[in-house]
Amino acid sequence: MKKTVSIFSSLALLAGVMAGCGPQDEAKPKENENEGKTEVSEDGMPPKPEKLVVWEDVKRGVALEPAIKAFEEKYGIKVEYKEVEMATKQRDQLRLDGPAGTGPDVITVPHDQIGQLVTEGLIREIQVDQSVLDTFTESSVSAQMYDGKLYGLPKAVETPVFIYNKKLMDKAPETMDELYQFSKEFTKGEQYGFLALWDNFYFAHGVIAGMGGYVFKNNNGALDRNDIGLNNEGAVKGTEYIQKWYKELFPKGIIGENGGSAMDGLFNEGKAASVMNGPWAFQGMRDAGIDIGVAPMPKLPNGEPVKTFMGVKGWHVSAFSKHPEWATKLIEFITNEENAKKRFELTREIPPVKSLINDPLIAEDEGAKAVAIQSQYAIPMPNIPEMAEVWGPMATALQLVANQKAEPKQALDEAVKTIKTNIETNHPSK
Length: 430
Description:
Main location: membrane
CATH architecture of the largest domain: 3-Layer(aba) Sandwich
Signal peptide: 1-19
Radius of gyration: 22 Å
Membrane topology: Lipid-anchor
Number of helices: 17
CATH topology of the largest domain: D-Maltodextrin-Binding Protein, domain 2
GO molecular function, one term: maltose binding
Number of strands: 13
Order of helices and strands: HEHEHEHHHEEEEHHEEHHEHEEHHHHEHH
Protein name: Maltodextrin-binding protein
Helix content: 25-40%
Number of domains: 2
Largest sheet: 4 strands, mixed
């Protein structure tokens, strides 16, 4: 999910009321569906359906085809897929096709839509063995949770990383302190050592969280909308650090709505030695003739990693599927190590499968390896509807700080006050 906020984006992701009946009730398995008889196969699965239907993202079907073929051969169940734009159209179309009985068994969406899909009764909780979950990075599984329950399996991840021009910088620094010193020496005229869109909360979150701030407190997979850590001591320290870069080293042109294009232009013209950006930017940089190097973000002055926001694309079982157990079996199969590796080969989507991080296919791809490593430190963007109330107030606060028009503590206190008011107004407590 692209972000500038685009982005996996996005950046975010990321409003509804609980459906008390309808889709959720209709989706419950009916024990007397076959004239009062419940058939169970020897392995505990219900009878095999003739067909399962999957909605895949556009231009991604090529990676699904080999996995489908192998699944059909192993289980004798036909699988059909249709490419439907992932970011918004799958969700919108499921609202219509699901109740009409013409929808899919499996969909793929960005993880920040999960909360909304659950509250609308469009996807169902799934049950898988712990051994299945153990194949994925912990953060990617966490992204598939809502209110402490599992609603999908991860397909691919993306998160901001450190990108540098090899002509201007020999290697990626290990720490932000090293990067700061490099930038102090390199930055002059129209040349800059490092640039980041830290007036954009999607990117600024990495610094704020790394210093101890948080959006919503995570209580064993359930996000507490009433516990907001965006003006705690760590968040203030992180924002003070951001303000230092804007005051001393960043140009004013990368603040605000056009900041992203301004930063991209400086880097692609060879005027910036390094930037914080995501894998969606790699190709444009290469097309501009830049020999890029990619690495995880350097560690913060407190020794902690930059805890970037992570976007996770996942596979989910429709609440309207008549074959939820087999739909779950299908998403287990298409996300296994073999099929995840094949997907990367065909689409360059980075799988959050732990065993593949050091696989030569990914390890020898500098960009993919950096994203895979950084994703281990990353925090999934909150997937509850209340996240929609965070982006605007935090953008206002960060831009005031970046422009030296407000002190971090004052700006963050005002942002959190606004966020809480908007949550109570737009998302009344149940």
